[in-house]
Amino acid sequence: MGWIFNQRYFRENLKLGPGGETGPINDLLRSTTERIGANVMGKRMFDQGEVSWPEEAPFHTPVYVLTHEKREPWARPGGTTFYFINDGPQRALQLAREAAGSRDIRIAGGADVIQQYLNLDVVDELEIALAPVMFGGGRRLFENLREPGPQFRIDRVLDDPAATHLRYVRK
Amino acid sequence: MGWIFNQRYFRENLKLGPGGETGPINDLLRSTTERIGANVMGKRMFDQGEVSWPEEAPFHTPVYVLTHEKREPWARPGGTTFYFINDGPQRALQLAREAAGSRDIRIAGGADVIQQYLNLDVVDELEIALAPVMFGGGRRLFENLREPGPQFRIDRVLDDPAATHLRYVRK
User: Fold this and answer.
1) How far is Cα B111 from Cα B88, in angstroms, rounded to an integer?
2) Element holding A27 (H helix, E strand)
3) For A100-152, how does the pLDDT look when each residue is reduced to its tens digit (9 = 90+)?
4) Is B64 helix (H, G, I), strand (E, B) or coil?
5) Which of A15, A19, A52, A132 falls 20 to 30 Å from A152 in CA-CA distance?
6) Maximum CA extent, chain B
7) H or E segment and range at residue B67
8) Residue ranges in chain B whose pLDDT is less than 50
9) Which residues on chain B are in Cβ contact (under 8 Å) with A136?
């Protein structure tokens, strides 16, 4: 994630202080964020974020968290409200569609939740920041997929020293 | 591999007929091939190639095949000779270095052999053609790696509709 901390839009959004790059990666970050009307994420991602996001969580939309935990909605300053969904990915998607209106829905992560939506065949675009860091472990993005899996074409590639930003669109 | 069949250098090399693209991807293919003085590959890759390469195999260098099979060198027209090495990756690399002289050595594949050389910490560059095709199975390139693994930086990205050509260089 190192690439994101030097982008001005991200720094402003998380109130990390002045400065940051304003080039095409920053534009990508801004446009991707601004066209999102609702987010969906998994419990692992939420649990990590709950302890590390600032009080003003960086989504500014409804966020539907797929979980078995029963919990009341959690509203944060700045327009982010987390809703805890116990009825599976299709129900979360339905709620996200109603909330997003004409804007797009982001499946924020992690890998397991992205795989669930790939397997529901509802993913129109993939935006991937590919950085040459070998973890040696962790969850893989493209596994546990139904066959035949969804087919994507390369839509755009942004080249940056810290990461290669790949945008794929469903065929 | 679809991207490669429409590149002129590849078509000429495999005598696939006239035509093909002559842009930066073709230049990359030519320069990568021409700076190689020896190839190393695994038995799986060799077995697949033995039945599908043309009589004039497309390497035009010595090729060291890592295998448990004992077999005499196999010379093909056009300068490719396959040597079958039973003494492990370091011995194959030593022979490849002697044969290549001042030229480079390519670890051609497959994934298992590339991992063996990554774990020997002798890989200076990675050239990857990344295409959005989900196989749902097969060998993964970056697994079974020692920790800490080798560290690479992005050197160059070539954007093409059929594949994204990523070149990483060791830090």
Assistant:
1) 16
2) helix A24-34
3) 999 999 999 999 999 999 999 999 999 999 999 988 778 889 989 988 888 99
4) strand
5) A132
6) 47
7) none
8) none
9) 145-149
- Which residue in the set B140, B154, B160 is minimally distant from A132, CB to CB? B154
Distance CA A132, CA B97 (A): 27
Is the Cβ pair B154, A147 closer than 8 Å? no
Tokens 């969906």 sit at which residue?
A40
- Bridge-partner residues for B152, per DSSP? B170
Contact at 8 Å (CB) between A169 and A150? no
Cα–Cα nearest to A78, from A63, A52, A56, A100: A56
Beta-bridged to residue B81, according to DSSP, are B62, B75
| Amino acid symbol at A34 | E
**Sheet with B104-109: strands ordered across:** B74-75, B81-85, B62-66, B36-42, B104-109
Task: Record the tokens describing residue A52, joined without a space.
Answer: 């590390």
The first and second tokens of residue B163, run together, are 């594949």
Rounded to an integer, what distance in angstroms lies between the CA atom of residue A74 and that of residue A59? 13
**HSE (side-chain half, CA atoms, 13 Å) at A60:** 10
Which of the 8 DSSP states describes residue A131?
A: -
User: A63 and A81 in contact (C-beta within 8 Å)?
Assistant: yes
Give chain A's contact residues with B (Cβ, < 8 Å): 130, 132-134, 136, 140, 142, 145-154, 157, 159-164, 166, 168
Which of B132, B145, B166 shows the shortest C-beta gap to A134?
B145
Count of helices and strands (H, E) across chain A: 5, 8
In sequence order, the 6+-apart residues with CB closer than 8 A to the CB of A58 are: A13, A14, A80
Please list the residues that pair with A168 across neighbouring strands: A126, A154
Alpha helix segments (H runs only) across B35-160:
43-50, 89-100, 111-119
Angle at the Cα of A117 (from A115 to A123), degrees rounded to 5?
A: 110
User: pLDDT (tens digit, 9 = 90+) per residue, A47-76?
Assistant: 999 999 989 999 999 999 999 999 999 999
The SS3 assignment for B94 reads helix
